[in-house]
Amino acid sequence: MHPTLLTPLAPVDAMRMLSAALLALAIAGCVPLVASDPAVVAGYDAKRDAAADIDRAISAARVSGKRVLIAVGGDWCKDCRELDQLFTARPALAAQRDERFVWVKVFVGSENRNEAVLARYPKIEWVPTLIVLDRNGQLQASVPSTEFHVGDRLSAERVQNFLGSH
User: Fold this and answer.
1) Inter-axis angle of helices 156-165 and 78-89, to 10 degrees?
2) Which of 3, 9, 89, 120 has the smallest number of CB atoms closer than 10 Å to its CB?
3) Please, what is the Cα angle at 104 between 60 and 80, to 5 degrees?
């Protein structure tokens, strides 16, 4: 066997090789660079305990230094589905959201109005409404999706500007 194959790597070289390998796996989609946050509620569900979900998101925000972004709506809502489609079609927009916020969806509809938990925030006049909380759970903004409309469609640029300004 060739003698250089038996020579141990210096610790710095070993760390560089490990870092490069992990980065390559992450880029390939095999290993996430950041673990998924368990506080994130990605779907509207009338049966979920919205107060507990929001409390978990606030706890996660304290740890991560992020803010909380609550989307109040439902899968029955056209604008809610359109907002989801914007995040799916534009990975950079979803990345901007996830980099800055712990994302929680709170269902509101005939099956569950979540009135008790939503009473903490300004009255919901339109869905979806995006509510921004700081890492301590204090209200920073409450914005209906009508603010993101251009005509009868949601504007990715307006959503991006909103995310960047909070």
Assistant:
1) 80
2) 3
3) 160
Assess whether 1 and 76 both reside in one domain. Answer: no
Looking up residue 104, the CATH number of its domain turns out to be 3.40.30.10
- 119 HSE (CA, 13 A, CB side): 4
Distances (CA, A) of 37 to 32, 102, 104, 125: 12, 8, 11, 29
Same domain, 62 and 98: yes
**DSSP codes, 104-118:** EEEE-BTTB--HHHH
Per-residue pLDDT of the chain (166 residues; tens, 9 = 90+): 555 444 555 554 545 554 444 444 444 443 333 335 545 788 999 999 999 999 999 999 999 999 999 999 999 999 999 999 999 999 999 999 999 999 999 999 999 999 999 999 999 999 999 999 999 999 999 999 999 999 999 999 999 999 999 9
- Give yes or no for a contact between 111 and 46, defined as CB atoms under 8 angstroms apart: yes
- State which residues form the domain around 9: 1-33
The residue type found at 86 is L
